[in-house]
Write a structure and sequence with these properties.
The complex is a heterodimer of chains A (49) and B (366). Chain A has 49 residues and is mostly helical. Chain A is built from one helix and no strands. Classes of the chains: A mainly alpha (49), B alpha/beta (366).
Chain lengths: 49, 366
């Protein structure tokens, strides 16, 4: 195992932050989708008959 | 020293599985949801154009939610006309601004002497109407126009309960859950956080996240304007459906009549307001077909109005409605019909508003 250079550490941390942002946002979207599916929330409403 | 390139280190950080990033992902999601809950409040939504909240141009649930929240915050002692009801009333009028112009013209006053709040939505249930009217500050004088056609009161139980389970409006009204409980619906837990308490409404309107920056969409009030009216085949099917609906009263009918009767004294606000129970406009063919089925309910609504100092009116004759005005049994298809109907409504409302508009501090009574 060799020591990490400062540029490598910065690049790795940048990658980790990006992972948090992307997957965090995906988690929010997935939770929203799960909530819509489980609650039966109306995306479309049929008006009239 | 390491031999990895910065790109390799970046990819390691991006794709590596670590406890720290897993915790970060959950913390990010939690923080975003908390931020949204803090940002989406009734005050902020009331300040937005309805086109920012609306899912599509015809999203009257969104436009009425915004209008109702605005009304609750801005109505004061200026006389107000508040319209609640279903699509038959919504489609029968040109619009709220136009009605205000008509009323101001009849009363001979500037338009800013009165307000008109249009809180109609397609398929609006009576419990939604009463919850919307509860948002009007008690001190506000005015005239409340409640769509009270028999088809609004004689609802299938499943249809009414569906509106409780999947709300079309995001309003906090104290009596709403109580009315649901009366009808057998178990109200969800209320967290006291507006976004969470109306999550079904907002989770299906993610446009709210970007429309404040990209701008509102244009809303269309009328869905049937200019469409091809029902064919004879569609008429037969439509009338059968209507008759089936009205021929089989459910416990919801009785619950609606009881709730309306109980609400009328409160809505009159100690004589500051008049209440008009407005029969739904109807195609003459449909009117003739359903008349025997709705006579009992209409009679009870008329008695109820009489006992409570309200008016029960049908404007079909005054508006000179004719078969060519309609798309189906109850929705207008021409702007000329809407103009005639709105004019007839303004003729009815103007005498009720005259005293309170011309003499501030007076109740809106004839």
């Amino acid at each position: 195992m060799t020591a990490e250079t400062p540029p490598e550490r910065r690049a790795r941390r940048l990658g980790m932050w990006l992972q948090v942002l992307v997957f965090g946002q995906l988690l929010v979207i997935a939770l929203g989708g799960l909530y819509i599916a489980s609650s039966g929330a109306r995306i479309f409403r049929y008006a009239g008959f | 020293m390491s031999e990895r390139s910065p790109l390799s280190a970046f990819m390691d950080g991006l794709t590596g599985v670590r406890l720290s990033t897993a915790l970060g992902i959950f913390a990010f999601a939690l923080a975003e949801l908390a931020l949204l809950a803090a940002l989406v409040t009734p005050d902020r939504v009331a300040a937005l154009p309805a086109g920012v909240v609306a899912r599509h141009a015809g999203d009257d649930g969104a436009s009425t939610t915004v209008a109702a929240l605005q009304m609750a915050r801005t109505a004061g002692t200026r006389p107000a006309v508040v319209l609640v009801g279903a699509s038959s009333l919504r489609e029968a009028l040109v619009g709220a601004d136009s009605l205000r112009t008509d009323l101001a013209g009849r009363l001979g006053v500037p338009e800013d002497r009165l307000e008109v709040h249009d809180l109609t939505t397609s398929g609006q249930e009576l419990f939604e109407s009463l919850a919307l009217l509860d948002l009007l500050p008690t001190e506000t004088p005015g005239v409340l126009v409640i769509g009270a056609g028999a088809a609004r009161l004689m609802r299938p139980r499943a249809t009414t309960l569906d509106r409780f389970e999947h709300p079309n409006l995001a309003i906090d009204a104290p009596a709403l859950d109580a009315r649901g409980a009366d009808l057998g619906f178990t109200p969800p837990h209320r967290a006291g956080v507006y976004l969470l308490d109306h999550l079904q409404f907002y989770v299906t309107r993610p446009q709210l996240l970007w429309r404040p920056f990209t701008g509102p969409i244009a809303l269309a009030r009328h869905r049937y304007l200019g469409r091809t009216p029902w064919t004879e085949r569609r008429w037969v099917k439509g009338l059968d459906t209507l008759v089936a609906l009205l021929d089989d009263p459910t416990p919801i009918t009785e619950a609606n009549l009881t709730a309306l009767d109980a609400a009328l004294p409160r809505l009159a606000a100690g004589g500051r307001r008049s209440v008009v129970l407005l029969d739904a406009v109807m195609h003459p063919r449909a009117r003739e077909r359903v008349a025997p089925l709705v006579a009992g309910v209409e009679s009870r609504v008329r008695d109820m109005a009489g006992r409570n100092g309200a008016q029960y009116v049908s404007l079909d004759a005054e508006a000179r409605v004719e078969p060519g005005d309609f798309y189906d049994h109850t929705h207008f298809v021409t702007e000329a019909a809407m103009t005639r109907y709105q004019s007839a409504l303004a003729d009815r409302l103007a005498p009720l508003l005259r005293a309170c508009v011309t003499t501030p501090g007076t109740g809106c009574r004839p």
